[in-house]
Amino acid sequence: MSNVIYGVIAVILLLVMIFYKIWIGAALAAIGFIGYAIIYSADKSLIMVASEAFSQIGNYSFATVILFTYMGCIIAGTGLGDDLFKTADKWMGRLRGGVAIASTVSCGIFGAVCGSSTACALTMSKIAYPEMHKMKYDDSLSAATVAADGTIGFMIPPSIGFIMYGLITENSISKLFLAGVMPGIVQVILYILVIAVLVRKRPDWAPDNSARVVTMKEKIASLKTTWPILVLILVIVFGLYGGIFTATEAGAIGAVSALVLAAVTGKLSKKNLKSVTVDTAKTTGQVVLLLVGAYIFSRFLTITRLPERMTEIAMGISSPVLLISAICLLYIILGMFLDIYAITILTIPILYPISVAAGWNAIWFGVVLVKLMQIGMVTPPYGTNLFVTSSATGVPLKQLYKGSVPFLLADIVHLILIIAIPQMSLMLV
What is the pLDDT of residues 169-209, one digit of tens each? Predict the structure, then answer.
């Protein structure tokens, strides 16, 4: 049996294991180990696993995952994120659909210090959704807004999606972060337009708050509570853009700054510090083990020559438009049934060599894949953010599916813009 066949069998087996809810990290490591042992020997496979795990965990760039996750958990766990929404609500609450727009803007800013789609969705589920529910917003709009808004944190740096892509493909995480800034801003604008159009067509979905009175003094006063978040954003963005420090150093500075700011504002206690630390350990432990499993599986795939064979087949597609369209369709279909992290780990070792062979810019391609990951998070029936939001708000999934359609259409438009205008992603790099 040829090694390529072993690779195909391994991919099919991995999909089956994921379907039966076997944790993706364990499935990747197990298949990679067994496959390597079949082709070489059990002894060589043990050596490979041990060396690969040690070298990857010891990788300096791995600290980026831990540090940015810690910073995001501090912001979410200490309540600093709550002030963002309250401020945005002060400025936009009088508009029809203003609370939903405030949620979107808050997620755009919150995403700049979080990096986790799930964390953004959960935070807004606890802050923005109750406010919209109290004001009689239709649940199809309010819950879907929260679920979609959460994905913004996956595009705007520091994004865990960019970190994973950078680690697996060995591309600059700092450049990937900068590449996500403008697409993230465009996504926020598109979501605001979606909300504005929806409440105009369906006035019953959002109350008329034009009578609400918020003085300019109150609006300006509300800005005082957001200064910790703004300080963090300025430090990280300008530090990275100015070349003052690397992504890993930015994570360290951001984490320490978040701790200091939470303490200064009186939002840091022993209880939430413990909770934040535990949440960080759980999240980073899962991501690190996931990446270790990915490296083991990728090492096995390399010796099967399956990525090379897939690249040869892909290069048979003469049109770059058809090729990128096929990749997008693959991600969207897989996103309907699989966890987005599983898809990412499974596909990047195969798709990245194809992108290199096609002559595509690696940073731009990373932005495209992260956008596709975002779409997967709100694509029925599996969309992670849909489940998270439904669980946190109590809104039935059926209603969320209905409400998410306009945001999905906006995501498709956003994807087309990213593909058609590469400079949007590369202008800051």
Answer: 889 888 998 899 899 999 999 999 999 999 888 888 887 77
User: CA-CA distance, 176 to 159, in Å (whole number)?
Assistant: 9
Please, what's the b/e burial string for 238-253 (b: 16 or more CB within 10 A of its CB; e: otherwise)?
A: ebbeeeebbbbbbbbb
Torsion of CA 99, 101, 104, 105, to 10 degrees: -100
Q: How far is CA 126 from CA 4, 77, 130, 206, 393, in A?
A: 48, 12, 7, 19, 8
Report which residue type is found at 90.
K
209 within 8 A of 98, measured Cβ to Cβ: yes
Structural tokens at position 276: 């934040």
Answer yes or no: are the C-beta atoms of 139 and 165 closer than 8 Å. Answer: no
Please state whether 136 falls in left (phi above 0), alpha (psi between -120 and 50) or beta.
left
Within 13 A of 250's CA, how many CA atoms are on the CB side? 33
CA–CA separation, 142 and 399 (whole Å): 10
Phi and psi angles of residue 236, each rounded to the nearest 5 degrees, phi first: -70, -50
Query: Which residue type sits at 229?
Result: I
Return the higher-pLDDT residue of 372 and 272: 372
| Spatial distance between the Cα atoms of 18 and 28, rounded to a whole number of angstroms | 10
CB 179 within 8 A of CB 409: no
Q: Is 265 exposed, middle or buried (0-12, 13-18, 19+ CB in 10 A)?
A: middle
pLDDT tens-digit map of 91-126: 876 777 888 888 888 878 777 666 667 777 777 777
Say which DSSP state 319 is in: -
Q: What is the 3-state secondary structure (H, E, C) of 4-68?
A: HHHHHHHHHHHHHHHHCCCCHHHHHHHHHHHHHHHHCCHHHHHHHHHHHHHHHHCCCCHHHHHHH
Sign, CA dihedral 341-346-348-351, equals negative
Are 125 and 386 in contact, with CB atoms under 8 Å apart?
A: no
pTM as predicted: 0.79
Which two tokens mark 180?
């996500």
End-to-end, the C-alpha distance of the chain in Å comes to 45
Q: Which among 363, 248, 340 is positioned nearest to 290, based on CA atoms? A: 340
Q: Structure tokens of 397?
A: 């999934």
Helices within 93-246 (DSSP H only): 98-111, 117-134, 139-150, 152-155, 160-169, 173-179, 181-201, 216-223, 227-241
For the record, the structure tokens of 378 come out as 């709100």
DSSP state of 262: H
Q: Which two tokens stand for residue 309?
A: 């064979």
Q: Rg of the chain's alpha carbons, rounded to an integer?
A: 22
